[in-house]
Amino acid sequence: MGMDALVFDFDGLLMDTETTSLLAWQDLWRWHGLELDVAGFFARHGGDVTAERYAALAAAVGPAYDQDASHARRQAVRTELYAALELSAGIGPWLDDAEALGIRLAVASSSPREWIDGHLDRIGQRDRFELLACGDEVRAAKPAPDVYLLALSRLGVPAERALAFEDTVHGVAAAQAAGLRCVAIPHPNADPALFTTADVLLTSAAEISLESVIARAERRQ
Predict the structure, then answer these.
(1) pLDDT above 90 covers what percent of the chain?
(2) What residue spans of 129-207 are helical by DSSP H?
(3) Residue 142 has what pLDDT?
(4) What is the pTM of this model?
(5) Is 9 annotated as catalytic?
(6) Which of 11, 16, 167, 199 is catalytic?
(7) Which among 154, 216, 149 has a CA at the least distance from the CA of 185?
(8) Cβ(186)–Cβ(166) under 8 Å?
(9) Measured between alpha carbons, how far is 40 from 132 in angstroms, rounded to an integer?
(10) Does the annotation count 117 as an active-site position?
(11) What is the rounded distance in angstroms from the CA atom of residue 59 to the CA atom of residue 49?
């Protein structure tokens, strides 16, 4: 098998924090008697868009908006939701198989290290990953290739010997810009039809073995 390393996105891929985040924001809008526009919720790039989301809510609510109360409400709801999160379906067996095959594991995410470490530590999965490349360590978020280039540098492997796994179009673009082939598993609120450049497109990690997905990616030149 020609892959030395697998590099995973975190949010929406290893763990479905994307859906959980959406649910917390929907609750907050409903708390204000409003409905969130789900179609415009997910950014077309990586990185933190929390300030923009609060600004949109404040504009919708008007003068009665209370930022502190809104933030407290969202934090309480999302803490409860995040506490129930585990690895996405099929990811655990893939990690087991990678370890059995001697393939190294890394994370490349636009999120900060504290966020990723906290979630992986809570579910006892942090030690399975040799290294993290995080958004607070690079200049530009995805679709810029910065976090993937950082991951490759830390791994010490060439891009053609590593395979990326992503759940967003901008994540696929970032991985491919760094020279990696990329397996896309769109998160539940992403449109699979937009993932036209992905080397492999899946609906779930549970639908195929790791060896099979690597073989499919390797056939793409």
Answers:
(1) 90
(2) 146-155, 169-177
(3) 95
(4) 0.91
(5) yes
(6) 11
(7) 216
(8) no
(9) 29
(10) no
(11) 16
